[in-house]
Amino acid sequence: MIKRIISGTITLALSSALVFSPPALLPAGAASFNDLKSHWARQAVEQSYALDLMKGYPGDVFNPDGPISRLEAIAIIIRGMGLESQALSLDYKNSGVTLPKGMTWGQGHLVLATQKGLLHKDYVSQLMYNNPITRQEVAALVAVALQDKLKVKGDPAKLSFTDTDNISTTYRPYVADVSQNDIMQGQGNNEFGPNDIMRRGQMAALIVKTTVNGWFEYGSDRIIDGTLAGIDTATDMATVKKSDGTQIPRLVGSNTVYYRGTSETTKDDFRSGEKVLAIVGSDATIRYMEASSDTGNTGNSTNTGTTGNTGNTNNSGSGATITEQTQYTEGEVTVINSNYIAVKTGTGTVKGFSLSSNTKVLKSSSQVSIGTLKVGDLVKVTSVNGEAREIAITGTASLTSNEAEVRGVDDFYGFITLRDRNGNRKEYEVLVNARIEKGNDRVSLDELEIGDDITFEVGSNGKIDEIIALGSEVSSATGKVTDLRTGSTPRIYVDSDRYEVDKNADIIKDGDDIDLEDIMIGTEVTVKMDEDDIVTKIIVEDDEDIIVEGTVTEVDEDRDEITIEQGSDLEFTLEVNRSCTFRDTSSSSYDIEELDDIRDGWDVKLYLDNGKVKEIRVTDT
Question: Does the predicted model carry a pTM greater than 0.85?
């Protein structure tokens, strides 16, 4: 029901003609914003900046009372859902979604919002994306984004705002959802202000609340909630002890902001042993640290000794007993200095470790100096309580040649992810004035597509200054997979057109490699062919909001799963939404009310929403 409403009426409301306004979200540092000193949203803005959820404008301003556009709001919500990288790498040009004219950023965010049910593809082209968004429109988007996590279902009849009558009947269920789950509240005088423009400061407060309180999954690996073990003033290393005993060391810097309760303070005000909330930036350093407003703790002031001492236990200045915990971490070095190293693991999590005179660095089994370590090195770190005891250099994340395939494009922040022929992957920053050519034309970064083969040059600063798209594919087609054949002569049928598939073809989904056998009939794809019309690349555009058909081979009501076999002779197991609806469109007269009523051998049509089955239609029994 939510999908149907948000797909129709709400999207039409979002499409009403308003005045054009320029795009926002240009990078700026929160610590340097000069228009927040006495603003009520200052603390929320600091947190949203630390989490990379919202940025500022040139001139070191945030404009907290300024309006936020519909596109900005959608992009921020997509980030909160943890889908930013997916939005940035999405091949929006071949998505099947017609976008509004004149867009210079956020195309992937709009397409992904469509795929996730926030917007309807039939109306996206009419969206006045640069117009200010209203509070009731934000409520609708947030309610749909969190529909599977709401603790209670909102009841419009229980809305008690003094201006409830001003809330559109279409939006009332969503305002009820967010207000009765304490996600959004009124603005004072018990008014919700449904038609009021959402302000940037309000949006910062909303997205921080939903993230820190766990409504959105984004940022869970960057929010550290625990007890401050101490801050080493000699190295600026703060160590936070989590409830499970794990100690996490992270650097603080000149741009770190400190709060006690709702009042800004300084690093010297923090005490070991007190409860703190730390937010770690993308560079693995602490950008924001907050302590309780209760100053009656008995802990000591910030420590001056190093953290992570050896021994079975370590008594800190607060009298706490710290048990040694040995951990092993493998990944790529992203930050290195004389007393700190940050490593990005294969899952994308960045972990930081303190360095000391006891840290041993090994390369080819021989001990080398810490200065041998470089950003981009692949390492295995043995750490104890957050201190690196041994770092083994196992290789380098650099690509083996300057020829690679595009696996992700972040045109907003200027990054590109590449993969070489040996399967090595690396993310590079692209210079703003980099020379980028495609088809003998100068193009911008956002015109590169996932799957493009390129050559590139890296300057002495480690950033790409030239990209040339090779254009090895001479034609392409986008559409729905209507049949698939694997085996010795693989073939794929797109909108009933047959294509031979090269046995070494690259098959890509969300920037990652998959197999031909992983593609369901019904999936939206783009296929790229060489001069012999042989498919050399298949890019999955959408396999989460599609319709698939097949024969039931298994039903597991305990796990809410259904397994079907398709005409490709491949089986797929899909999760069934708890609110799934059932229909019998066959000539039989079965009473189908729940998943357990479905029988093996029946032919079914499954309607997917965000990867889960939302409707099952029985077509033949």
Answer: no
